[in-house]
Amino acid sequence: MSKPSRLAFAGGFFVSECRMIITLVRAKQQLNVEDDFDNPKIEALIPQAIGLVVADIGRDIYQTGAEVPENAECPIILDEISPFKRANLETATLLQLGSLWSTAEAETSRPMTETKAYQSAIKPFVRVLVG
């Protein structure tokens, strides 16, 4: 049984904290961190990375439909999307996390939002407003 979820305000949007897009273990794998010394820093960066993705796609992310407020516009509900779309969100979040973690990445000369990998990962979720 999972713990009750809470909402975090990240990047101007709400993000469910129940079972986030990426876990501490997955984040540490991405960052090649093996010890626990940096856990508090990594745990603080995870919602920041998610917040950057949420801000770029213009949609709030929730774990379950029960968490979605009535006034939410076009939310992403993690429990209701395909594993492949969830993997796209995870990829985008991990790319943002890597960018936040280190400035030694190969593509630091340009913002993460301009990299092909990041653009491909968020493409299915970007909300386009017409009119």
From the spread of the alpha carbons, the general shape counts as globular
> How many strands, which pairing sense, and closed or not: the largest β-sheet?
2 strands, antiparallel
Which spans of ≥5 residues are poorly predicted at pLDDT below 50? 1-7, 9-14
Helix content: 40-55%
List how many beta strands DSSP finds.
Answer: 4
Distance between the termini: 44 Å
Strand content: 5-15%
Q: What is the averaged pLDDT score?
A: 79
Structural class: mainly alpha
Output the strand order for the largest sheet: 1-2
Number of helical elements: 4
Our count of domains comes out at 1
Encode the helix/strand succession as letters. Answer: EEHHEEHH
Radius of gyration of CA atoms, rounded to a whole number:
15 Å
Structure description:
The protein is mainly α and 131 residues long. It has one domain (7-125). The chain is built from 4 helices and 4 strands, in the order ββααββαα. The strands form 2 sheets. The chain has a two-stranded antiparallel ribbon with strand order 1-2. The protein has a two-stranded parallel ribbon with strand order 3-4. A hairpin with a 2-residue loop joins strand 1 (7-10) and strand 2 (13-16). The protein starts with 6 loop residues before the first strand and ends in a 9-residue tail after the last helix. Mean pLDDT is 79; it is low at 1-7 and 9-14.
Summarize the structure.
With 131 residues, the chain is mainly alpha-helical. The protein has four helices and four strands; from the N terminus they run E-E-H-H-E-E-H-H.
